[in-house]
Structure formats: structure tokens, C-alpha cells
């Protein structure tokens, strides 16, 4: 039975809420780096809860898509945006998981500083995204946002390369290198996911203009 | 020239056959773990044949999609299901390949037991899927199936984490760890692919209801 | 405002140009293997420029797709082809990046020879693709091309397996193995991307016939 347009939260509300959760998720991820093992497990559990909440929003959006006659943008575009927001969250969740799973307790300070720089890029990506999404109805006005995300992705890419080089130049044992490389790569994929989202919004803006 | 609806196997037949092949594939994969190197190559070759057979079914379905005026579900949904069945098969095939390619002959018993637990999850995923697919015409009736697959995916995720932790805590040499980590991750992706398939069927059920 | 069909380069022109850039990219990648560190950075920078140029073509095609009423093939098929051409380029660019980033200066000769064999497969894939694309208007006539790419992908797969086995059988230190494995896998994914493109063209041919 198709919903009336006014039933429940709008597509824009659902996407905006998904974006807001990304800010909480990346904050938790940042806190994990500097914390003690036990705290870290608690932070990871909280990150899982947020990921779960975002998942529910994503399912609600898919359901609404399938039940609506009229959608504010093309059906597949709305699905694409929700999917990319979901990707961003999944990478943060995965990074938190790996940090706990791998028991990365004694990260050398120079590598930790570089990891923090990568996470800092993610913090700014999430902030930009959460600030931009409430304006999604007029995607052309979000130009500054997608330009800034593309700039951040470049910065993130440089941070990623620096971390990787430092890792390989370190005298860490190979197994620790394997573990840290996994974390570093998941963070990099997270930044890419934010860029994919921004590019998707740009493409919608072009199409709607 | 568009086919008449009655020409050749139906979409449901093709998908059901693809699912049945997954049961054979994962059985072969399970046999590979406990077998001697030479037997293992023979089992891998058989696994390749099955993968090839599944590929033909997938191609036949794509061709039929392109040539049919009327399809029982949305065109892209049928393509999605065939593609996910193909992913499941590809991951099993890749796991078999890696086991032969990497010459993993002396897997320590505790790691082997954990790998077997991961494969056991895949066995049950394949069984559930092959049992469910003949009922695809009424996707809403497959609720038990998709709930069970989501439960199995959680179980598989735990098995994956246990194996990974055991691997990193082992005193295996780093190169062996790299190899086994590849196998463990491909098995985990296989479980995820079964979940993607089940979620796709759930989404169709919601849409058709 | 929708463009008239005659405005700017055609869809076929844009795809053909993307394919031509792949030939230049893989040539640069091949030159990187045998060159000194400093030359290598210069070659990588040139590869980046070409990747950027291809990106612009891809964006132009997306924009044109969004602004055209009439498209020579289904809209999503044209988008798919441009996306796969983009994937081919991205993998070559990533391979070049890794070679510089990882400072792979002393690759043992047997491994270097095997890497060169992998790149040689990519050279032939790019050549075949660039030769075929100008004939895309009549995709059924491109049968020889897609058969040959599938053959090359098999050859590439064998080269990939040989390189990986040689790598693991070498007495290289684990960290160097990790680095080289990354390069070898990106090259393999590049070959797969060429196959995905060829299979996409085959599917269009079947559909249009």
C-alpha cells in the first residue's frame, strides 16, 4: 500500500539523520586511539550501536522508496546516497572493530600521530557532510561542500601515503605491520566513501539543474 | 527476437540451478581442507568445473533477461539475484584456488579447526539457499530463510574473528599468516555474499507485497 | 537544458578517447619497472596526468548522459562502459603509485620478469580495447575483440598466479612480500577490469541484436 507523501520522516530527514550519526561514529573512533584496552572495547560497542541505528535508517529509506509513488529525486539516486552514507559508517565501524580485534596496544608514537591525522580528515568529512545534508533539497547550493570534500579527500590521501610509508620504514615486526596496514587502508576507504557521496550529490545537482 | 515466455528454462529454474551448484561447491571446498596435496588439486579442478557450469547459467539468465518482454520480477532484481549467486560461487572458487596456490599443507590444528568452522557456516548458508530458491515465486514465504541467513552471517562473522585472532596469536611465520589471512577473508566475503543475496530477496518480497 | 545530438563530441568519441589513454597509461607503467627511482617519480607524475585527463572525459560523458534526451545505447549501458574504462585506468594509476610509494628498488630479477609478463598482458588488453572502441557503433562486429580479451584475461590470471607463487617461494623478507603482493594484485584487478568492459560490450551486442 503506497504511503502518502506526508507519512513519517521524509527522504531528506532520513538522509540527514544518517549523516548526523557519522559525526558521532567518527568521534568515537577518534577516542579509541588514545584510550586503554578496556575503554576501547566499550567505545567499540557504542560505535556498533550507532552503526546499527544508521542501518535502521537505511532500511527505513529503502522501504519508503519501495512504497512511494513520488520521490523528490530519482529513485535510484536516493538509494545511491543512502548506500554511500551506509558505506561511510561501515568503514568507521570496521576500523573500530579492527583496532579492538588486533589488540593494537603499543602503536609507536609517530605512527599513532599519522593515524590521528587520517582520522582528523574523517572528522572534518563527517562534519561537512552533516552540515550539508539538511540543504539537500537544493543540491546546487551545496557546491562549497562537495568542493571541500574533494579537497579533504586529497588531504586524506596524502595522510594515508605518509602513514603507509612510515609503517614500512618502521622497525615494527611484520605481523604488526600487516595489522596496522589493514587499519590504515580502512580509514582511507572511509575517506573515499565520503568523496563518492559528495560526487553523487554533485551529479544530482547537475541533473536537476 | 524476443522469446516466448515458455521457451527454455524459466528465470526461477535458472536461479534454482545456480543455488544447487553452490551446495556442491562448498562440499568440495570442505573436502579440500582435510585432503592431501594431490587430491586437493583434483578437488579444486572439480570446483572450477562447477564454477564454470554456474557461469553458464548466469550467462543464460542475462541473455534471457535481454530477450524477454515480460519478467516475473523487475528486470534489475532478477539480474541482482543472479549476480549475487555468482558472487557466492566466485568466493568459494577463489578460496579453493588460494588453498592450492599457496600450498597450505601444514595448517596448525587449531587454525584448521577454526577454518572448518567458517566453512561449516558456508555449508549451511548454501543448504538454506538451495532449499529456499525453489520457493522464490512467493518471496514473502521465504522469511525464515532470510532470517536464518542473517543469523548464520553473524555466526560466520564470529568464526572469522576467532580465526583471525588465533592466526595472529600463533607463532606461525609472517608469510604463512599472510597466506592464511587471505583464505580466511575470502571465506568471510563468501558469507557476506550469501547475506547480500538473502537481503535482496527480502527487498523483493517487500516490494512485491 | 538538453543538448542537441550534434553538440560536442559524441558518446562514441568520448569512450574511444578514454580507451586511447589506456594505451599511454600502460606504456608508462611498463617503463616504470625498468627505470631508476627519480625517473620513476617523473613517469608516475605523467601517469597521474593521463589519469586526470581520462577522468575529465568520464565526467564529460556523465554530464552528456544527464543532458541528452536520446542516447545511442541504453543510458545505463553507456554509463557502465565509461565506468569500466575508468576502473582500468584507476588500477594502472594505483599500480604506478604503489611502485613509487613502496620504493620497490631492488626487485629480484625473476619476480621482475614475472611482473613484466603481467604488465605485458595489460599492454595487449589496452591495445585490443583501443582498436575495438572506434567500432562500438556496431558492437556485434567486435566479437573477435571480446573473445581475445577473455583469452588475455586467462593468460593474465596464469601470470598472476606464477608471480604470487614465485613471491612466496622467494627468500624475500615478509615486508617486501607484502608490498609486492599489493602491486601484483592491483595488476590482476586491472586485467579483470578489461574483461568486465569486454563482457559489457558483449552484453550490449546481444541486447541490440
From TrEMBL, chains A, B, C:
Q: Which Pfam families match?
A: PhoU_div
Residues annotated as coiled-coil are: none
Top-level taxon of origin: Bacteria
Q: Which family does it belong to?
A: Belongs to the UPF0111 family.
Name assigned to this protein = Phosphate transport regulator
The scientific name of the source species is: Schaalia radingae
